[in-house]
Amino acid sequence: MATPYYRPLVQIGPGRPEAALPLAGGWGWFTDVEVLRRDAPPSFLPAKALPPDVAAPLTAPRPDIAGLGMNRPRIMGILNVTPDSFSDGGQDAHAADAVERGRAMLAAGADILDIGGESTRPGAVTVPEEEEIARVVPVVAGLRAAGVGGVISVDTRKAAVARAALNAGADLVNDVSALSYDPAMPGLCAERGVPVCAMHAKGTPEDMQNDPRYDDVVLDVYDALAARLQALEHAGIPRRRIIADPGIGFGKTRAHNLALLARLGIFHGLGVPLLLGASRKGFIGTIGRAPQAADRAPGSIAVALAGFAQGVQMVRVHDVAETVQARALWQVSVSGFFEETNED
């Protein structure tokens, strides 16, 4: 029989049974798991029957990332400094404008700013590293010069860009290639001792949406991330400094995206914090009848809250203030865990 995969059936709120297991040291818990195999239909198992080596990564508290506790849902604000991003290209192409928008996002409640100088939309071409550095570094440096002390992430596939951004004051590297595009990236991040976000993508932005196929998208993405996390550990990046992202929209059809969203909980088995980046993506526009990316905030917020309900520790969003407000109300509705709605 094929290798089993275990998805905790996450629950939140009051009425928690005594036998329930905690999910990743956070706000969720579970009494049962779905067992998935490549050669058999799904089945179910009581959580108390899990082998210890399976239960451990599902239940263990996640270490802080860049000083942020992972026991509460976090919001990463997207600050693109590109002329051609699919949703907000050109909006913050000038460093001074980007700095002010970043400060506004933090004031609105963002926990992390994610600054990117290269669009990774479907069909995007690679930006020369010198140009990407020229876009990103003035914004990172400008935020630090303005007294911003919050967590700053650099969204890049290139080690030279990451190095320049870290030197300017960034804290975290968010790489859509899971640190595989540039062979120098794992060594740099290991040497600098910074946390990283490793995202799954099938192909490159130029070709990733050219008829992507999987045997089983949920299990294939899980296996790919598990292998990549192991490789990063071997490169000197400890698992306590890694975030995993299933890569919604990166080499996936709408059906693939929905399958991943339905079973996000399986990725807790990786034993690391999870990031969900679905904000304003095409499938939200199709399902929510919003052809223009800027009109997809309601659908994006719905997906973000669905991620929090499955225990995802962080969501990456364009609409920070709206998502912060939605999170606050969501926390009130599950107040069996959250003691204060304004803690963040």
Structure explained in plain terms:
The protein is an alpha/beta fold and 344 residues long. 34% of the residues lie in helices and 17% in strands. The chain contains 10 helices and 14 strands. The strands form 3 sheets. It has an 8-stranded parallel sheet with strand order 12-11-10-9-8-7-14-13. A 3-stranded antiparallel sheet has the order 1-5-6, with no helix packed on it. A 3-stranded antiparallel sheet has the order 2-4-3, with no helix packed on it. Strand 7 (74-80), helix 2 (95-108) and strand 8 form a beta-alpha-beta unit. Helix 9 crosses helix 10 (320-333). Mean pLDDT is 93; it is low at 86-90 and 340-344.
Provide keyphrases for this structure.
globular; eight-stranded parallel sheet; alpha/beta; three-stranded antiparallel sheet; single chain; disordered C terminus; 344 residues; 10 helices
Brief summary of the model shown:
With 344 residues, this protein is of the alpha/beta class.
Strand portion = 15-25%
Order of helices and strands: EEEEEEHEHEHEHEHEHEHEHHEH
From the spread of the alpha carbons, the general shape counts as globular
**How many DSSP helices?**
10
The helix content is: 25-40%
Number of strands: 14
Strand order, main sheet: write it out: 12-11-10-9-8-7-14-13
Instruction: Determine the structural class based on helices, strands and strand pairing.
Output: alpha/beta
Mean pLDDT: 93
Main beta sheet? 8 strands, parallel
Distance between the termini: 46 Å
Radius of gyration computed on alpha carbons: 19 Å
Low-confidence stretches: 86-90, 340-344
